[in-house]
Amino acid sequence: MAGNIITIDGPSGAGKSTIARLCALRLGLSYLDTGAMYRALTLHCMRKAVNLENPKAIAGVLADANLKVELTLDGPMRVFLGSEDVTGKIRTQEVTRNIHYVADVMQVRNYLVDMQRKIGETGNLVTEGRDQGTLVFPNASLKVYMFATPEVRARRRHAELKARGVDVSYEEVLEDVSKRDYLDMGRELGGLKKALDAVELDTSSLSPEQVAESIVKLAKARLKMQTRKIDKSLLERQRQAEQGK
Ligand code: C5P
């Protein structure tokens, strides 16, 4: 591994994306959102009207998805199916609810793990997901496992969906969050768990800036990394681009 790789794993709604993006900006690293890769393949399967309960059928359309990601130092990560930019189209409730079918398929996981390792070959990456520190990059320079109570995560997700004009109750979101925890933790290959050598961070009562600051401090102390000042509006522009606004 040429440069540093920082892995951030944890359940949905723990704040991984915002925090990973902030850390990448501060440390001058690229940001890899592995959830977006699973989302894009799920969207592809839905468009192809694949029977999601049939793992073989899912594996069968993997290659023609022509999945690509584009990482930049200052911009958001973009996801493509062929030449179509689907970055803003993969965040719907339908995609979220169907992901587990696709993420459970062994061929899908092997395919994406290979792709992620290739991206990580040159290092200089903050990568975020469920299995980054345990399976994909077991030799990462710094591993973080981030969590928050299901209620806090559901409240955050509910506020986010409301802001996007999605009409959904807090109770429904809490149920979705709990179901996703159950499915993500129970997955045989690439299931969500803390790597033995990961630093644990409870984000329940901390802002994304506070959590990012503690990771940046760790990177500076342990990896002797340098930081740079960031323009706060850049993060907001990245977030909006990701939502397809
Ligand atoms: O991070 P995000 O919420 O976008 O991830 C969506 C889903 O993709 C997760 O709930 C999980 O099922 C799957 N995923 C995974 N492994 C990863 C990243 C995401 O299985 N490394």
Topology of helices and strands:
Blueprint: E1 5-9, H1 16-27, E2 30-33, H2 34-47, H3 55-60, E3 67-70, E4 78-81, E5 84-85, H4 93-103, H5 106-119, E6 125-129, H6 132-136, E7 142-147, H7 150-163, H8 170-186, E8 199-202, H9 208-223, H10 232-242
Parallel strand pairs: 1-6, 1-7, 2-6, 7-8
Antiparallel strand pairs: 3-4, 4-5
Helix pairs in contact: 1-9, 2-4, 7-8
This protein binds cytidine-5'-monophosphate.
Summary tags:
single chain; 245 residues; alpha/beta; Rossmann fold; five-stranded parallel sheet; three-stranded antiparallel sheet; 10 helices; globular; binds cytidine-5'-monophosphate
Question: What does this protein structure show overall?
Answer:
The protein is α/β, with parallel strands linked by helices. The mean pLDDT is 92. 49% of the residues lie in helices and 14% in strands. It has a single domain, classed as Rossmann fold (3-Layer(aba) Sandwich), CATH 3.40.50. The chain starts with a strand and ends with a helix. The longest helix has 17 residues, at 170-186. Strands 2-6-1-7-8 form a five-stranded parallel beta sheet. A three-stranded antiparallel beta sheet has the order 3-4-5, with helices on one face. Cytidine-5'-monophosphate binds at residues 12, 34-35, 38-39, 99-100, 103, 129-131, 180, 184, 190.
